[in-house]
Design a protein that fits this description.
CATH architecture: 3-Layer(aba) Sandwich
Shape: globular
CATH topology: Rossmann fold
Order of helices and strands: HHEHHEHHEHHEHEH
Oligomer: single chain
Number of helices: 10
Number of strands: 5
Radius of gyration: 17 Å
Largest sheet: 5 strands, parallel
Structural class: alpha/beta
CATH class: Alpha Beta
Length: about 220
């Protein structure tokens, strides 16, 4: 089983392009060298939907949050950079948003591949932090990626079911809350690019996340 896991990890990460997001990772390292983050914070990881939460103390007052989301990262990017963005810290909770960019990276990326990438990352996190609670924010329904919505729905469903079988995990469903009554993405929650969220969109995320964040 261990050999199989290593082989899967090799194929997921080993074929990826060399060192994307190196500048952002270097910036994290520099910040850590100046003032290393305190223990027992909530660690946010993943892609730009979290990266753009620049002032977490205002959005989530009273919560100590360390944000190490970067770029337009995919799950395989987070796997690649786990030693720099996850493993150095001693969080009391890990919250992740990632997976959307995996689908957007290529039409050949399947639901099965994204789910496998997620499971690989989750298993790596659990191996390092076996007792740290884990929260996954569902992939959101971006209007600019409406052609991916069926893949997104299916990946969310499978990941939610998978996490239900694990201890100390939560699946936060933002997908349904970001739809209009007709079941299509609510454009009013997004910036002009119809990909990144505006304050109205983040207000929904805040409402969904607050009940699961640890003080």
């Amino acid at each position: 089983m261990k050999f199989r896991f290593v082989v899967i990890l090799f194929f997921i990460v080993g074929t990826a392009s060399a060192q994307p997001y190196a500048d952002e990772i270097a910036a994290f390292k520099k910040m850590d060298s100046i003032s290393f983050p305190e223990r027992n914070q909530i660690l946010f990881i993943g892609s730009s939907s979290f990266r753009l939460l620049r002032d977490t103390s205002t959005i989530f007052p009273g919560y100590a949050i360390l944000n190490r989301a970067f770029g337009g990262s995919t799950l395989e990017d987070v796997i690649r950079w786990r030693y720099e963005t996850i493993y150095p810290y001693q969080p009391k909770q890990i919250v992740m948003y990632c997976g959307e960019n995996d689908f957007a990276s290529s039409d050949t990326v399947t639901v099965e591949l994204v789910v496998q990438r997620f499971k690989t990352l989750f298993q790596l996190i659990r191996a390092k932090y076996p007792s740290v609670p884990f929260v996954y924010v569902s992939i959101k329904p971006s209007p600019s990626r409406i052609h991916l919505i069926n893949k997104v729905k299916e990946a969310n469903r499978i990941i939610q079911t998978y996490l239900q079988s694990k201890t100390d995990t939560r699946f936060v469903n933002v997908f349904d809350a970001m739809l209009k009554k007709d079941g299509t993405p609510d454009e009013s929650l997004f910036k002009e690019d119809m990909l990144h969220m505006n304050p109205k969109g983040y207000a929904i995320w805040k409402q969904k996340l607050l009940p699961v964040l640890l003080k």
